[in-house]
Amino acid sequence: FAGVLQPGFHFMIPLVDRAAYTHEMREQVLDVPPQGCITRDNIQVDVDGIVYLKVMDPQKASYGISNYREASINLAQTTMRAEIGKLTLDQTFSERERINENIVREIDKASAPWGVKMIRYEIRNIDPSRRVIETMEKQMEAERQKRATITVSEGAREAQVMVSEGGRQEAINVSEGEKQRRINEADGLAE
Predict the structure, then answer these.
(1) Burial 86-122 (b: 16+ CB within 10 A, else e)
(2) At CA 162, angle to CA 161 and CA 167, rounded to 5?
(3) How far, in Å, CA of 36 to CA of 17, rounded?
(4) Mind listing the pLDDT tens digit for each residue in 39-81?
(5) For the chain, what percentages of helix, strand and coil (3-state, to nearest 5) are there?
(6) pTM of the entire structure?
(7) Average pLDDT, stretch 95-100?
(8) Helix (H, G, I), strand (E, B) or coil at 18
(9) What is d(CA 97, CA 112) in angstroms, rounded to the nearest whole number?
(10) pLDDT tens digits, residue range 98-109?
């Protein structure tokens, strides 16, 4: 290692000088392929994402690790597996932001000696297996049927209450009518 060439125009002597490594100094986007993960409630999901990183120290990126891109992807996959394993299936869908932050924090700690800074990580897809999706659909259908049954039974109960209140009111009205009829007859006889 002789030095790092900064951006700009440089002279190199052929056969004596050569650029051993060249690095993209802008922010880079790396695709993390789908990874099978098992949630805390033992459900297998395939999770993939995107890593955004930037080379901060070209010397460390060249000599600190052989391939920082591949290492970043592998580290993102293993960290993602560990984070998904701490959560239930429902939590994985609702807590994506927290998962992303934890993955960035863990990758950033490990990649510091490589001269690479993890900017962010985004989970792209969380895909449960087909069997799990079918089970979830059955569960949702059962929940809808349960709500429908409850609604029907509440309607029947309210109808019975209304019928009984109607019967009670009818009996009161008949009784009051009978009472008034007797009063009227008694008044008529008395006159």
Answers:
(1) ebebebbeebeeebbebbbebbbeebeebbbbbeebe
(2) 100
(3) 46
(4) 888 888 888 889 898 888 877 877 778 888 888 888 888 888 8
(5) 60, 20, 25
(6) 0.62
(7) 86
(8) coil
(9) 22
(10) 888 888 888 888
